[in-house]
Each structure stands twice: as structure tokens, then as C-alpha cells.
Amino acid sequence: MRTIFVVSPEEADMARRIEKTLMALPIESGILFAGVRVPCQGLYELRVGCARNLDVDTACRLVLQVLEADQVLKLVLGQIDIKAYRGVVRSPQEVG
Question: Tens digits of per-residue pLDDT, 36-78?
């Protein structure tokens, strides 16, 4: 039998808030997409796509600074695993 993890409404709301906060950044920030997997082991898995001209370490530091600036998101900083992927492209028509 497969294990089905239950996600609380608070955890789902937190994941949506993280995604919304990062996607609100201007395209010039280099952050092109953000996806959050809600914790099943107490750890949010955050995947971020960054522009080709942005180093993945820089993208991770940028994400941390953005999350630290938000008082609510700051509370879960120790529970977030950030992975950045470089080389993703987003055209201006897709912004919106």
C-alpha cells in the first residue's frame, strides 16, 4: 500500500505564498519560475529556474534574501531546501 501524506491548509498556504512572493519579482531579477513541494517530512522543497546569466548560488542567495524580508516567510527559512536550475528562458510575452 502506498503512503499518502496529508498536507495541512497552513502548509499549502505557505507554499503558495512562497511561490507568489518569488514570482512577483521583476523579470530582471533572473528568477523565471518557482515551484514549492509542500513538506511531507517537514521540509519545503523549493525549485527555482533562473536566467542563463545568473549563477545558481546567486539565485539561491537572492531567494533567501527575498524570503527573509517577509516576516511570515522568515519563520520557515530553516525548513526550506532550495534548488536552482540555470539556463531556463522566459520570453516577455509569458510574463503576466
Answer: 998 777 789 999 999 988 999 999 999 999 999 999 998 888 8
CATH number at residue 42: 3.30.300.30
Alpha carbons 49 and 28: distance in angstroms, whole number: 13
38 burial type by CB count under 10 A (0-12 exposed, 13-18 middle, 19+ buried): middle
Q: What digits encode the pLDDT tens for the residues 48-57? A: 999 988 999 9
Say if 18 falls within a structural domain: yes
If phi > 0 it is left, if psi is from -120 to 50 it is alpha, else beta; for residue 42 that is left
Domain hosting residue 70, numbered range: 9-94
Q: The whole model's pTM is what? A: 0.81
